[in-house]
């Protein structure tokens, strides 16, 4: 969730959605994202809408945050009903941040209970929280599991101390396997998030991180290339020459190594940056984003999407709470996607996942590009014959270029 909000149309104070939002909603999953904007320390690479206690000052209380989010959930249920969007139970719930587990587990449980009371949960619903390895205890994880959480995603990032130092991560790598074991004991599924391409990280460093993650035995592993965002502390350090810049060739080599090691360990890729042990271990919440389902995003700066209508909340927790206390929607702006934009996003997102994109959904020129993409080793020829566009390993490295060619009309 980038800290800079998009430019869109003004959102109405009552939050009501245009008629388009209700169209076909019964055939789409409904999900909830809850943004917890609090962090103990701001990482040097992070561009998300997060705040440390020092940055927030005395105007925002973390103790009151669960109640404030609950007020938005109450508003959400009213807005959807008044906008004619049919009621649906929640398929997935995802607490992200920030560090959600900086809040007491009881507060996270309160928010989940509020959401379940408003919409209900589908049988077997996936409920995830992100966490830092040093922000959980055996007791807090047990409490979350008892409240209905099913999954925890730990921000491991690296197993190498000097890499973590560049990223401004504060946890001890030795804490990761311990936290994974506690989560397992609580009955939670586990995902580990890794970052590759940190300035100063060698290929051997990255290999060590992969092996350490695999040794923990998680159900799911995400591996993301480091992106240097303008305005971050790491960007400033690179600009001053204090650390080297990132390198595309280095990223490619590390991605290929990740796929090789993870595949050998029994993990299968299902999205460009994500691998899971089995289909049941894939992150269903993220798949809902990639497949264009509906989700309400609660919290400051959170983004929502229902039926091609997208909106985003005001950024600062104080402004967010102020809107809700006044009985107004916290939405800062919104946009209604036209058919061309929805098609572009559909092609871009479907191409990134293992299910791929139906060739029938391409325009005439896009279909003619398929043969060239197969010849270039970017698209699986066998799958293309069966009517699906599925990226090869090389194609995943060049996914944006593949999408550009497929979108030619």
Automatic annotation (TrEMBL):
The keyword Disulfide bond does not apply. GO terms for molecular function: 4 iron, 4 sulfur cluster binding; coproporphyrinogen oxidase activity; metal ion binding. Keywords: 4Fe-4S, Chaperone, Cytoplasm, Heme, Iron, Iron-sulfur, Metal-binding, S-adenosyl-L-methionine. CDD domains: Radical_SAM (cd01335). GO terms for biological process: porphyrin-containing compound biosynthetic process. Its main location: cytoplasm. It comes from the Bacteria. It is found in: Cytoplasm. Residues 24-271 form the Radical SAM core domain. GO terms for cellular component: cytoplasm. InterPro entries: Aldolase_TIM, Coproporphyrinogen-III_oxidase, Elp3/MiaA/NifB-like_rSAM, HemW-like, rSAM, rSAM_sf. Transmembrane segments: none annotated. Probably acts as a heme chaperone, transferring heme to an unknown acceptor. Binds one molecule of heme per monomer, possibly covalently. Binds 1 [4Fe-4S] cluster. The cluster is coordinated with 3 cysteines and an exchangeable S-adenosyl-L-methionine. Belongs to the anaerobic coproporphyrinogen-III oxidase family. HemW subfamily. This is Heme chaperone HemW. It comes from Arthrobacter mobilis. The lineage of its organism: Bacteria, Bacillati, Actinomycetota, Actinomycetes, Micrococcales.
């Amino acid at each position: 969730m980038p800290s800079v909000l998009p430019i869109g149309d003004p959102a109405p104070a009552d939050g009501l959605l245009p008629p388009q939002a209700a169209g076909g909603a019964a055939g789409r999953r409904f999900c909830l994202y809850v943004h917890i904007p609090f962090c103990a320390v701001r990482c040097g690479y992070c561009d998300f809408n997060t705040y440390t206690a020092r940055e927030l000052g005395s105007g925002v209380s973390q103790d009151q945050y669960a109640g404030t989010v609950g007020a938005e959930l109450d508003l959400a249920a009213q807005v959807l009903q008044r906008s004619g969007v049919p009621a649906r139970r929640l398929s997935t719930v995802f607490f992200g941040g920030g560090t959600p587990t900086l809040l007491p587990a009881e507060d996270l449980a309160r928010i989940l209970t509020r959401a379940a009371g408003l919409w209900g949960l589908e049988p077997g619903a996936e409920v995830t929280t992100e966490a830092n390895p040093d922000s959980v205890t055996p007791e807090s994880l047990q409490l979350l599991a008892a409240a209905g959480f099913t999954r925890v995603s730990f921000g491991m990032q690296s197993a190498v101390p000097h890499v973590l130092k560049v990223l401004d991560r504060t946890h001890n790598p030795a804490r990761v396997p311990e936290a994974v074991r506690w989560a397992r004991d609580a009955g939670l599924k586990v995902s580990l998030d890794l970052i590759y391409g940190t300035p100063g990280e060698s290929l051997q460093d990255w290999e060590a991180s992969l092996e350490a993650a695999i040794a923990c035995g998680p159900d799911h592993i995400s591996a993301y290339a480091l992106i240097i965002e303008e305005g971050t502390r790491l960007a400033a350090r690179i600009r001053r020459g204090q650390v080297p810049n990132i390198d595309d060739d280095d990223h490619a080599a590390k991605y290929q190594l990740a796929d090789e090691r993870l595949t050998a360990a029994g993990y299968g890729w299902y999205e460009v940056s994500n691998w899971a042990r089995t289909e049941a271990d894939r992150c269903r919440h993220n798949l809902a984003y990639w497949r264009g389902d509906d989700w309400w995003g609660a919290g400051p700066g959170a983004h929502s999407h229902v039926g091609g209508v997208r909106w985003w909340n005001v950024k600062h927790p104080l402004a967010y709470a102020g809107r809700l206390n006044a009985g107004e929607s916290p939405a800062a702006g919104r946009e209604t996607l036209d058919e061309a934009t929805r098609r572009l996003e559909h092609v871009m997102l479907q191409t990134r996942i293992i299910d791929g994109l139906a060739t029938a959904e391409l325009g005439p020129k896009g279909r003619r590009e398929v043969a060239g993409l197969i010849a270039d080793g970017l698209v699986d020829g066998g799958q293309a014959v069966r009517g699906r566009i599925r990226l090869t390993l090389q194609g995943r490295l060049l996914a944006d270029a593949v999408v550009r060619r497929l979108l030619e009309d």
